Amino acid sequence: MSDSKDTKAAPAPSFDTPFTMALLSGACAGVSVDVSLYPIDTIKTRCQAQEGFFKAGGFKGIYRGLGAAALGSAPGASLFFSTYETVKPIARGIFGEDRPVSVQGFAASSGECMACLVRVPTEVVKQRMQTGQYTSLSSGALKLMSTEGIAGFYRGYFTTITREIPFALIQFPLWERMKAEIANWQGHETDPWQGALCGSASGAFAAAITTPLDVAKTRIMLGQSDKGFVGTIRHVYKKEGARACFAGVEPRTFWMGLGGFVFFFAYEQACVQFRKSGVWSE
Description:
The protein contains 11 helices and no strands. The chain is mainly alpha-helical. The protein has a single domain, classed as Alpha/alpha barrel (Mitochondrial carrier fold).
């Protein structure tokens, strides 16, 4: 997908989402997807663990770590969307109205960097609970603090960013472009369910492509690698083969596809309801 300069092919949205609306709608989206689809995320994590799926827990206790996920989902998604919607107008001033892919990619990357400040600590505890290293949220957090300190909560932060930014650079411009094409075709803005379908397709596509980055992130967060992003992927490829670099690609793609629908539907539907309430004007 190229950064087209044809504004008719990818028009700018008719309005920007206000900061507070994006903050609250993002919280609704984050909680909706993380809680409803949590078992699939657990299966994906266990597939990527070094010891293998069944030794990491198999299908037992697939809701283990849900508390940690729920704790970080609302603020993480809130930070993402509030940053995304705030940065987009700024990015338009930098890149221009005729470069929507650059604008959306830059805004999405900025949003991911902010969201990971909340998402990574909860993700570290959650994934260790999913693989049986910790038995509860409180005991896991205390153990992590006592053994690794504050830095332990941000283990894999830069690897996560390395994963999230390419993901966002693919997903969000694709999501916005698909919505723009549908809006052009039907002559009016997309409905929440249409935006959700676009989010599902773009999320599944981005998830499949960036799976090796996710494998590296999982290994580092589980404490199974200290080699950094590139070193981890190289080690996995050398010791376990190319297939291991795409471990969990099926549940990850399915989770992101289904999760993308729930996530974007919840976000866009919340925005619609907030606008109808009259608290925010367009």
